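re: ur question from the group chat, yeah i did fold both. here u go
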Amino acid sequence: MQESSSSSAAASGIATKKQADLQAQYNSYKSTLQQLAQKIGELESEGDEHKLVLETLQPLPGSRKCFRMIGGVLVERTVAEVIPALETNAKGVESVLQQLVKEYKKTEEDMKKWQTKNKVQVVQGP
């Protein structure tokens, strides 16, 4: 009789460990998705700023003086010097943003496959 109670206790311990491992993996996926979403939001905002500045500078004469923040230092430039740099930066931000969106979608898909494979169901608390 002792043997059956110890085997059920061992089985319970294995189930608890598996549940803890699944919870840790789920939390890892959620954390990764949250970080990616936050970075995507930051880059979208930065892209919008670049677009707004470009729209503001486009109609101005190229010889007009303007100021640009580079590495925390405000430098004086002309509109003609700043526009190409802004366009390059805006394209770079857009490229990184697209990569992050792809990564987010892939991670989300991986998480769904993992949930299906491990029969994980999310239970929302009250």
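okk and heres the other one u asked abt
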Amino acid sequence: MAEALQKKLQSELEKYKQMQKDVSKSMSVRQKLEAQLTENNIVKEELDLMESSNTVYKLIGPVLVKQDLEEAKATVAKRLEYINGEIQRYEALLKEMEKKSDQHREVLSSLQQEYQKATGRAVAKV
């Protein structure tokens, strides 16, 4: 019985470790999105300061291409909208992962207690 509990405990522990790796990856992606959001907000502020007579260039590969100011503003606004949506999606995903992680932690704790009881009884019988 103790061996079966130990195998189940080991299996749950592996699942928990994988869950923690997934949480870590998602947090990393969310941090990158936050950095992109900050960068794009700065670009938006700079574009808002410009007048229609100013020239805007967009970097496409190794080439700077002239771009209309309004088009640049619209592109940045769309990008900000997309990034905000992705951040919200990752926040929801992280909350869900935290719930699952807590559940795994509870299962691990109960399995650990059962295993300790089983091994404790086996030692006591000897």
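fwiw on the second one: The CA atoms of residues 60 and 112 lie 57 Å apart. The longest helix spans residues 69-125. idk if thats what u expected
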